[in-house]
Amino acid sequence: PPTTSTTSRPVGLCFVRQGKLVPVTAAMESPVELTDVVDALVTPPAEVDGSLRSAVGQPRLVEDARLVGGVARVDLVPAVARLGSEEQLLAIGQLVCSLTSQPGVGPVSFTLDGTPIDVPRGD
User: Fold this and answer.
1) Dist CA 117 CA 13 (whole Å)
2) How far is the CA of 102 from the CAs of 38, 69, 87, 110, in angstroms?
3) In a 3-state reduction of DSSP, which class is residue 3?
4) What is the tens place of the pLDDT at every residue in 41-57?
5) pLDDT, the chain, mean
6) Amino acid 47: pLDDT
7) What are the CA-CA distances from residue 81 to residues 32, 69, 73, 121 (Å)?
8) Any idea what the Cα angle at residue 69 is, between residues 100 and 85, rounded to 5°?
9) Cβ neighbours around 7 below 10 Å, total
10) Which of 11, 41, 96, 97 has the most CB atoms within 10 Å of its CB?
């Protein structure tokens, strides 16, 4: 019987440690879609030392993520408004850091229920 082979590639992800973003590399099966990257952000990789956490995982803050003309378009869920400003900043930073490390991704834009929104920035 025919076999299907899968290949994996290293993917840059960002998680949170002591209030700061920390880049890590994880192996993911190719092809890697933006939704796969967002899914990988829910829980830090087990092989990391255990001090990392996700700001986008609980509650899950992303409804959808797709690449349109080099722009990562991320649709957030209303629960993002219930986060404190520091946690919002970490969640947005974690998404931007992880998504922009993917091939072909330039800027990241955010929507809430399909409506473009401004997001907190570190600067």
Assistant:
1) 23
2) 11, 14, 23, 17
3) coil
4) 998 877 667 789 999 98
5) 89
6) 67
7) 29, 28, 18, 15
8) 45
9) 8
10) 41
